[in-house]
Design a protein that fits this description.
Length: about 350
């Protein structure tokens, strides 16, 4: 009988995969899927995130369309800020909006010290439902403290991170306090997901690449370390994705995650040289999915050639699928990997 432990994805995370490369795709569920757009005609994004049946449905949509090797829970890294007491909305075309924002050091005191995740019970139920429906591993996730702090200070996705950097550089002690507080909330969020049954956790640090290496070491690393250490006590494999910051992977190795997810600014071959004994995930530029199908096949094969025989390789994109990507492009990519 098939056991989840036979999963190529879980084997690759332990660097024990001797078969083909497993594949899943960041943002595999989302607007590029016609079935998701149809679901969104009936429900808002946040409505989907807070209804167990809809979380399940949105998680399963990509699996019905492509034979992927892992599922990722349908949710968002920003739901935690709502649990912390901030208002969160996703206005059409505007991306996320958070208010009030953290403007002064005293605003940090408004965040409750004792995390309360009552509002995220639907996420727990959603995870439990999904596990009844799938025979592949389920990935849980959270945002990294720095990325979440930037949203609390900017109130939206920023182009310049001016307010975040001003705050961080003017009040480094208070900024560390904010990061610690966020980390405490994330530990609870991770506990919730692990208890509900996820098999792996990915930490998304989307904005750390805007920092210098020294600021990354000061404001990102210690807090990601805290999350990974906690997950290790729960025997939970961890993937770290610091978007756009493949140059920081040497700094991430000592944290001992199971895998590093890298973007296309570094070849997987170079990454393997820097990180010889950790699983590697990546790294095709999602823009290749706009290219002719023959070019998609060619690029996928180039990556597969580079990682041929590597027992710790997981095929993925270097960042999420863009919403205007054709399904046929994604299908072609997945088939190229599966048919090697
Ligand atoms: O399929 C999956 O990958 C699982 C679900 C998932 C979503 N967001 C769903 C989503 C995951 C893992 C995320 C992570 C996330 N969310 C990140 C980190 C990864 C990255 O992209 O760097 C960040 C920064 C966010 C915050 C966020 N959520 C933004 C900036 C936006 C708006 C931009 C956009 O793409 O619309 C979202 C909304 C969001 N999160 C959507 C989805 C499917 C689109 C919602 C919709 O309009 O239907």
């Amino acid at each position: 009988m098939f056991s989840i432990h036979d999963s190529l994805f879980l084997k690759a995370l332990q660097c024990l995969n001797t078969s083909r490369a497993p594949i899943w795709l960041m943002r595999q569920s989302g607007r590029h899927l016609a079935s998701y757009r149809k679901l969104r005609e009936r429900y808002s994004f946040l409505k989907i995130c807070y209804e167990p049946e809809l979380i399940t449905e949105a998680t399963l949509l990509p699996l019905r369309r492509y034979p992927l090797d892992a599922a990722i829970v349908f949710s968002d890294i920003l739901l935690i800020v709502r649990a912390m007491g901030f208002n969160l909305s996703f206005d059409e075309g505007k991306g996320p909006l958070i208010h009030p924002t953290i403007n002064e050091t005293k605003d940090i005191l408004t965040i409750p010290t004792i995390p309360n995740l009552q509002s995220l019970e639907p996420l727990k139920k959603g995870i439990q439902n999904i596990l009844n429906e799938i025979k592949i591993p389920l990935i849980g996730f959270c945002g990294a403290p720095f990325t979440l702090a930037s949203y609390l200070i900017e109130g939206k996705t920023s182009q310049t991170f001016k307010k975040t950097k001003q705050f961080m550089l003017s009040h480094p002690g208070a900024f560390q306090e904010l990061l610690k507080k966020i980390t405490d909330w994330l530990l609870e969020l991770l506990k919730l997901q692990v208890k509900a049954g996820v098999h792996v956790v990915q930490i998304f640090d989307s904005w750390s690449y805007t920092l210098s290496e020294s600021l990354f070491r000061t404001f990102c690393l210690p807090h990601i370390d805290c999350l990974v250490k906690y997950l290790r006590t729960l025997d939970m494999p961890t993937i770290i994705f610091c978007r756009g910051s493949s140059s920081f992977i040497a700094d991430l190795i000592p944290l001992q995650p199971q895998a590093l997810s890298i973007d296309w600014s570094l070849s997987l071959k170079q990454a393997r040289h820097i990180a010889p004994s950790v699983a590697l995930q990546g790294n095709i530029d999602p823009s290749f999915l706009y290219a002719p199908l023959s070019v998609i096949r060619q690029e996928a094969n180039t990556i597969l050639d580079q990682m041929q025989g590597d027992s710790g390789f997981i095929f993925n994109l270097g960042h999420g699928i863009k919403p205007d990507t054709e399904e046929l492009a994604v299908q072609t990519l997945v088939e190229t990997v599966l048919n090697r």
